[in-house]
């Protein structure tokens, strides 16, 4: 069965890997991309999203979204992790196409309303656009099929701070609204993404499988791997965003547990996702186990279908 997907994204090296994976996977139909601040400024995210779709030969709309969090100052982009323009050392290049006139929130609401019960939103950046879509039209919680989020750290430490994963940290107020909305949410966080690591040799295989797109992924991975090494992680980089896209289309590789969550909004633990069984909030399906070798093999081999 085909997963009809909108990817909400801030590309970003691992976002690029995730989007190109989605383009290669015959089980996924990309309905569009919505962009958000995070790894880069939102204008850069929109440019990069258009460029990624054009590289993959995918004709799908891109809608620009939030430039800043709901209630906090904008944090600086993650240039150390993703490079000044989002793709490591690769310079900026203007895409041929343009974003649609709709905002990301409007696009999310309309696409779900036009395809009730069919659309999976896969959010791999801060959750601001999803919160704005809920504010614009709360009925999206009924028309969406599922929301799959790369974010959070429930039973493990954070990555941007000891407490928090970066996407939740950058807009904890939005995350709290998204978790409280009552729509079906799957959280693909550091509990599983840190289990799926790719060294440089894996990206060599990606390049062999798909010289054009895989070559691009190999090139951007080198910057990402150098960042990981700079923080003392020499075993490879984690497949954070690709894991969420794969979980959305191939949930059989993940084990989950229903957990009621609260999000710390400020202070030292800002962005922490805390299991709160007594919380008056809907349960979120949290991924706590993964068949890491199977997910990695799917990621490495799927690109054969794209070039």
Describe the structure.
- This protein is an alpha/beta fold and 307 residues long.
- The protein has one domain (3-305): Ribonucleoside hydrolase-like (Inosine-uridine Nucleoside N-ribohydrolase, Chain A), CATH 3.90.245.10.
- It has 13 helices and 11 strands.
- It has helices at 13-24, 42-56, 79-82, 104-114, 128-136, 140-143, 166-170, 172-180, 190-193, 200-209, 213-230, 240-249, 292-302, and strands spanning 3-9, 28-35, 62-64, 119-123, 146-150, 185-188, 197-198, 237-238, 254-263, 273-275, 283-290.
- The strands form 2 sheets. Strands 3-2-1-4-5-6-11-9-10 form a 9-stranded mixed sheet, with helices on both faces.
- Helix 2 (42-56) links the parallel strand 2 and strand 3 (62-64).
- The chain is globular.
- 54% of the residues are buried.
Briefly, what is this?
It is built from 13 helices and 11 strands.
CATH architecture: Alpha-Beta Complex
Mean pLDDT: 97
CATH H level, superfamily name: Ribonucleoside hydrolase-like
**Are there runs of 5+ residues with pLDDT below 50, and where?**
none
Strand content: 15-25%
Query: What is the helix/strand order?
Result: EHEHEHHEHHEHHEHEHHEHEEEH
N/C terminus separation: 23 Å
Tally the helices: what do you get?
13
Structure class: alpha/beta
User: What spatial form do the alpha-carbon principal axes imply?
Assistant: globular
The strand order across the widest sheet is 3-2-1-4-5-6-11-9-10
User: How many strand units?
Assistant: 11
**What is the helix content?**
25-40%
Radius of gyration: 17 Å
CATH topology: the name is Inosine-uridine Nucleoside N-ribohydrolase, Chain A
> Major sheet, described briefly?
9 strands, mixed
Give the count of structural domains.
1
CATH class: Alpha Beta
């Amino acid at each position: 069965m085909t997963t009809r997907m909108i990817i909400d994204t801030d590309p970003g090296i691992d976002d690029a890997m995730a989007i190109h994976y989605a383009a290669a996977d015959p089980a996924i139909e990309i309905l569009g991309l919505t962009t958000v601040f995070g790894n880069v400024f939102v204008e850069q995210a929109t440019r990069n999203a258009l460029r990624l779709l054009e590289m993959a030969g995918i004709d799908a709309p891109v809608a620009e979204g939030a430039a800043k969090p709901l209630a906090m100052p904008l944090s600086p982009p993650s240039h150390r992790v993703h490079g000044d323009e989002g793709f490591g050392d690769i310079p900026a290049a203007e895409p041929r196409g343009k974003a649609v006139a709709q905002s990301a929130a409007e696009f999310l609401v309309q696409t779900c309303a036009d395809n009730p019960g069919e659309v999976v939103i896969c959010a791999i950046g801060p959750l601001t656009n999803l919160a704005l879509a809920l504010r614009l039209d709360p009925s999206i919680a009924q028309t969406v099929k599922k929301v799959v989020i790369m974010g959070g750290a429930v039973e493990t430490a954070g990555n941007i701070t000891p407490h928090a994963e970066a996407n939740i940290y950058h807009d904890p107020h939005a995350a709290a609204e998204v978790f409280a909305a009552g729509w079906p949410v799957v959280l693909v966080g550091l509990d599983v993404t840190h289990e799926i690591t790719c060294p440089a040799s894996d990206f060599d295989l990606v390049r062999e499988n798909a010289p054009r797109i895989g070559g691009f992924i190999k090139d951007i991975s080198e910057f990402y791997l150098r960042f990981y090494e700079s923080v003392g992680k020499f075993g490879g980089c984690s497949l954070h965003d690709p894991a969420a896209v794969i979980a959305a289309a191939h949930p059989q590789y993940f084990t989950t547990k229903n957990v009621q969550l609260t999000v710390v909004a400020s202070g030292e633990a800002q962005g922490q996702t805390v299991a709160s069984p007594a919380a008056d909030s809907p349960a979120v399906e949290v991924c706590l186990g993964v068949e890491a070798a199977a997910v990695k093999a799917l990621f490495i081999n799927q690109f054969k279908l794209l070039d």
